[in-house]
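Possible regression after last week's pipeline update?

I re-ran a chain I had predicted before the update to compare outputs. Posting the input and the new output here so someone can diff against the archived version. Not blocking, just want to make sure nothing changed silently.
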Amino acid sequence: MNVNNGDELCTRWLIMEAFSELLGVRSFEKITVQSIVRKAGISRSTYYLHFQDKMDLLHQLTEHVIGEFLGLFEKFEDAEMLLDMKQLYSKQQPSQHVMAICEHIKIYKRFYCNRLQDPMFINKLSEQLSSRLMLIYQDETHAVFTAYGIVGCMSRWMIEGLKGSTSDIAVRLASVTLLPLPEFRKHCMDHVGTELKV
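New output (post-update):
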């Protein structure tokens, strides 16, 4: 029973991986079930044991990737953890949590490159992220601002061809994440004020 279950998971993974690779080189509309099964090295009948059609595959892959992405934000249990990031950010060393988010984006780069071209996907991802961030900021405006800022940084990183180190991008994301916090804004203003006095 476990072997069969493992085989099913392996087959689903093969299909999703093949689909992700195809999303990196062509639009969703130009991808066929035939091209997916050829890439995955399986039969059409095996494909249809797991997915109804390519829309179902896209939906399930999206749910999987976005679920994983949003799960990474559960590590930020409260604003206090974000405030700890303030010191790391000022030293240009983002936290492991932000680094993990950037690694996730790199792992699923083909998926994000394709999906971030769809305004509806951008909106859905940003809204789901803002709901998660509401638990941290306790303020809808700050949560929405941060969510759309993070997705905007992701889009730009994709457009730039993932240039720059993961650490550099993590610093960018950390700054977007911290900006809505009054304590961080005060820290930035104090830092700017100190530089102006010198």
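Follow-up from reviewer: compared with the archived run. The chain has a mean pLDDT of 82. Marking as no regression found.
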